[in-house]
Amino acid sequence: MLGIPLKYNVRNLFVRKVTTTLTVLGIALVVAVFLCVMALGEGLTRVFTASGSEKNVLVLRQNSQSELQSGLGRDQIPLIRALPGIEKDADGKPLVSAELVVVLNLDKRDGGSSNVTIRGVEEKGMALRPQMKLTEGRPFVPGTSEVIVAESVAKRFKGAEVGQEIRFGAYRWKVVGHFDAGGTAPDSEIWTDSEGMLNTFQRGGFSSVLARTTDRAARDQFIAGVAGDARLALEGKVERTYYDDQTSTAAPIKFLGFFVGIVMAIGACFGAMNTMYAAVSSRTREIATLRALGFSRLSILFSFVLESIALAFIGGVVGCALAFLLVKVALSGVTGTTNFATFAEVVFAFRLTPQLLLTGIVFSLVMGFFGGLFPAGRAAFTKITAALRQVG
Amino acid sequence: MAEPLIRIENVVKQYTRDTQVLTVLDGLSLEVDKGEFVALMGPSGSGKTTLLNLIAGIDRPTSGRILVGADEVSSMSEGALAKWRSENVGFIFQLYNLVPVLTAFENVELPLLLTRLSKAERKKQAETALAVVALSDRLDHYPRQLSGGQEQRVAIARAIATDPALLVADEPTGDLDSKSGEEILVLLERLHSEFGKTIVMVTHDPKAAARAHRLVHLDKGVLKEDVRAKGEKGEIGVAAAAAIAAGK
After folding, report:
1. Is the dihedral of CA B192, B171, B104, B56 positive or negative?
2. Superfamily of domain B4-245
3. Residue B101 is nearest to which of A11, A291, A292, comparing CB atoms?
4. For residues B56-66, average pLDDT
5. Residue A94 bridge partners (DSSP)
6. Residue A81 counted as domain residue
7. Which B residues, 91 through 110, put their C-beta within 8 Å of a C-beta on chain A?
8. Average of pLDDT values for B109-129?
9. B167-201, pLDDT tens digit by residue?
10. Is the pLDDT of residue B91 over 80?
11. Could B56 and A292 be called an inter-chain contact, meaning their C-beta atoms sit closer than 8 Å?
């Protein structure tokens, strides 16, 4: 290629150490902030998209958007259990759990309070969610007021350590264990026995039924069975689909990420542009010489855009490293936000995925391209004879 | 009779500043033969650098024609001109205009990057050019590590690296002390006599002009005097150049 050698640009970046460093840091900060906000959105999305199995079917009252809005009578449960397609465990018992969901406002450790989902489950509740592991203590004993609490909830709410008591009004629950659900929806919940909960809250029925089906065909058969039974007036949703629908909570955060990112990127573009303008004007005579020697306008343009992109790329890499450190060290804990479908707090962690890091790099390259384009244009289109007269 | 390499036919160059039209070259015609060493002299604003830029193809006349060899450079497109320059013209500037982040060797190799030569061929040619200017021991030095005279010699090596027929020099000794300036003039003289280069040099310095074999004196954009050297060495001579420069 008849172009200006790359070493020309690379060495020029090293010659202007201070401006290069400042521009790199500016771009790095923008990329880091962008990635942190996006990691927040990603963490939230993960809670929902990772939740739910393709084989599990959640039975709700017809047209219910969430378990909170749904209600099933006690008499409906045996009818659901009798439907075909449900998988049985080693003991020959159907993998079904009739569940009750209530949202309570509990005190947080750092002051204030927030809504937390309390879920009453049946014996098979945990078996239906294989990603769940008991990390401390023991399971609750059915029929008692014992609960197990998600680790991330325990970290954020008062009285949730094993052996302590969670209080809400007149209610008292003894914490007997902690669990981890691998970043899925139960990580924002407190679990207890559904029968005990029906009594405590004096409810006449459940919120939902979760059932495991044997395969895709059985699943479709089961869903059809639920819909087809006029006595039920219920509908079955694939559990994964149900949680995917709730991902909308992450949308405003992601929008914010893009918005903040783009506003900052425009600023960073101007920063890069400023650096490149300075680089171009300090090399006006040099560029004119290159053109006099016969280097085309296009090769000058290409060379300076490349220099700007290289600068931004270094900034992008530093920004990724910065975001990685921030997420690993400063933002390593869990945090929460409100799920607008259930009004309960969703607990999640910042997630910096390889795809996000790649987005950060691409983002920096775009900044470099636009930041370099106009100064490079100026370098390529200045009159040679005028530029040769410039001193310095 | 040598054939003309450069033919300038009735060239006008005007600049417009605000509403004022400034005529820098006013219907100038000139021929430069192949292998000639021409000094362009004249007071500031006489149009000599403008004329040099037009000959070198980095500027275009307002009207008139400029032919170098068979190429009409006054009518070429920007892209074609860039290519033409890379193949036909070697530039020597007053301030050397070396790229500071590249070594002497890399600076000389720059114009060769525009040719189809292989890396090995480029290396050989750049080293040969640096040997001609007696800087074979400074290949890896950066411009800041060289003296002014050495920088100008690297610039000359860069100008001859692609072996162009025409060398244009704008005040090549203007920024040098007299000793270094003398070395540069000796070198230009050698390029002319040994390598047969056609050299067009703009200078204020009668000592530099004295080395040339023809002296073209411009004033207010027109040709005032055109003197060809006679004598054994074929040079103008300092006294004659000084007299011409003074307009006597």
Report:
1. negative
2. P-loop containing nucleotide triphosphate hydrolases (3.40.50.300)
3. A11
4. 95
5. A88
6. yes
7. 91, 93, 95, 97, 99-102, 106, 110
8. 95
9. 999 999 999 999 999 999 999 999 999 999 999 99
10. yes
11. yes
